């Protein structure tokens, strides 16, 4: 069993490009099935002002797109330009 605090603030890496997307800031839960539906990733950007013009500050990644949860990072398969 994994707790939210173990994945919170882990770096999220796009497996296709090897680039850092951001870090886990929250999760989306289905209250009826009691399962995690997605992770909410706070986008990483060294220039916070540029992030406002580049797109939304958060990215919702469905649970199906998570490849693996490692000790330090979470690898995901997403199609996005970051």
Search tags:
13% helix; 45% strand; single chain; SH3 type barrels; mainly beta; 6-stranded mixed sheet; 2 helices; 82 residues
List the helices and strands and how they pair.
Elements (H helix, E strand, L loop, with lengths): L3 H4 L3 E4 L5 E11 L4 E9 L4 H7 L3 E5 L3 E4 L3 E4 L6
Parallel strand pairs: 1-6
Antiparallel strand pairs: 1-2, 2-3, 3-4, 5-6
Pfam family, one: PRC
InterPro entries: PRC-brl_dom, PRC_barrel-like_sf, Spore_YlmC/YmxH
Protein name: YlmC/YmxH family sporulation protein
Your description of this structure?
There is one protein chain. The chain is mainly beta. The protein has a single domain, classed as SH3 type barrels, CATH 2.30.30.240. It is 13% helix and 45% strand. It has two helices and six strands. It has a six-stranded mixed sheet with strand order 4-3-2-1-6-5, with no helix packed on it. A hairpin with a 3-residue loop joins β5 (66-69) and β6. The longest helix has 7 residues, at 48-54.
Give the gist of this structure.
This protein is mainly beta and 82 residues long. It has helices at 4-7, 48-54; strands at 11-14, 20-30, 35-43, 58-62, 66-69, 73-76.
Radius of gyration: 13 Å
Continuous helix count: 2
Instruction: Note the beta-strand portion.
Output: over 45%
Low-confidence stretches: none
Shape: globular
Distance from first to last alpha carbon: 31 Å
- Rounded mean pLDDT is 83
Count all strands and give the number.
6
How much helicity do the residues have?
Answer: 10-25%
Largest sheet: 6 strands, mixed
Q: Sketch the topology as an H/E string, one letter per element.
A: HEEEHEEE
Q: What is the CATH architecture term? A: Roll
Number of domains: 1
Instruction: Output the CATH homologous superfamily.
Output: PRC-barrel domain
CATH topology: SH3 type barrels
Structural class call reads mainly beta
The first-level CATH class is given as: Mainly Beta
Give, in spatial order, the strands making up the sheet with the most strands: 4-3-2-1-6-5
Organism: Longibaculum muris
Domain PRC-barrel: 2-78
InterPro entries: PRC-brl_dom, PRC_barrel-like_sf, Spore_YlmC/YmxH
Protein name: YlmC/YmxH family sporulation protein
